Amino acid sequence: MQIYSTIPEMRTALKSREGIVFVPTMGNLHAGHIALMTRARSHGQTVVVSIFVNRLQFGPNDDFDRYPRTFAADCAQLEAAGVDLLFAPGETDLYPEAQQYHVDPPEIQHQLDGHFRPGHFRGVATVVLKLFNIVQPQVALFGKKDYQQLMVLRNMTRQLALPIDIVGSETVRADDGLALSSRNAYLSPAERAEAPRLYRLLDGMRRAVRAGERDFARLEREAAAELDRHGWKTDYVALRRQADLQPPEHAEERSLVALGASRLGTARLIDNVEIELDGSR
Ligand code: PAF
Hints:
With about 280 residues, this protein is of the alpha/beta class.
């Protein structure tokens, strides 16, 4: 695997490459990321990964400083996964001057996660567009665990006519259902044992909706209350349309998603479960 940290080096290395498939990350890689790399291989000849903890997408109370940075272990995993090129810029490589031009996503950036993390999706969209401009991939993969991020980036790519296919990859879970996430590292052993409750409740919402329940507000309220009863501090639990993450307007919407974000100790965990009412999920 070739590793580069500057934009000119990366551009030169990519000149002779074809079929570029890109997986942007913030490092601290786990099996969920590696599943993305493996899947990336089936979309093209050159798999490019980036590792960059992007200050722009962290708010003042977020975990930028303590976000786990595990570069050597990450490189070993990427090497083993057969990744071709790694772009790992420092902050001054990617932001040599204060970033004054931003991608400003529409209203959805202020809803759900965006309501609790003001500026987050603006920071994500800005860095991803910048990374896309550097790497110029034909395909880019993102995990479905960050469902709202995937939607924002898919819409950005379409609306700005970027010639990139955005592929969403299924969430990888531990045996007890907990979605793999770098932030699971913040959980104490007791919190780790409690953490799968978020997925269980979202999955319970899926089963209830598939069984015919249409009082979505009640399902959301009950799941949030159940989390809080077990020591969580819930930001939101929401049942939304998959297409635009807006509340379903009528009871016959077929493609829904139950999303939740809640704090357990010092970890803020997010998760989601897609609900297809045609019987497939
Ligand atoms: O999902 C992430 O790890 C980050 O938000 C991303 C897409 C790499 C942008 O910094």
